[in-house]
Amino acid sequence: MSRTLRLAVAQTTVPEDPGDRRALHASGTEIRDLMRRAAAAGVRLVQFP
């Protein structure tokens, strides 16, 4: 029996200042959105480079 693993590669915006709380929050929101969209497309693994 063959098993398939659907995966996706996603690129997010990287904040210039790692101490910028608003930028980090926005980045987290973007990552969660990309993960939701991938899951809706049947993806089981998302790679964020």
List the helices and strands and how they pair.
Elements: E1 7-9, H1 21-40, E2 45-47
Parallel strand pairs: 1-2
3D structure, described in words:
This protein has 49 residues and is of the alpha+beta class. It has one domain. The chain has one helix and two strands. Strands 1-2 form a two-stranded parallel ribbon. The longest helix is centred in the middle third of the chain and has 20 residues, at 21-40. The radius of gyration is 14 Å and the shape is elongated. The mean pLDDT is 92.
Task: Give a quick rundown of the structure.
The protein is an alpha+beta fold.
Features:
49 residues, alpha+beta, two-stranded parallel ribbon, 1 helix, elongated
Number of structural units classed as domains? 1
What fraction, in percent, of the residue positions are helical?
40-55%
Structural class: alpha+beta
Run of helices and strands:
EHE
For the largest sheet, list the strands in their spatial order.
1-2
Helix count equals: 1
State the end-to-end CA separation. 32 Å
Main pleated sheet: 2 strands, parallel
Unreliable parts = none
What's the β-strand tally? 2
Question: What portion of residues belong to β-strands?
Answer: 5-15%
Morphology: elongated
Cα-atom radius of gyration: 14 Å
Output mean pLDDT: 92
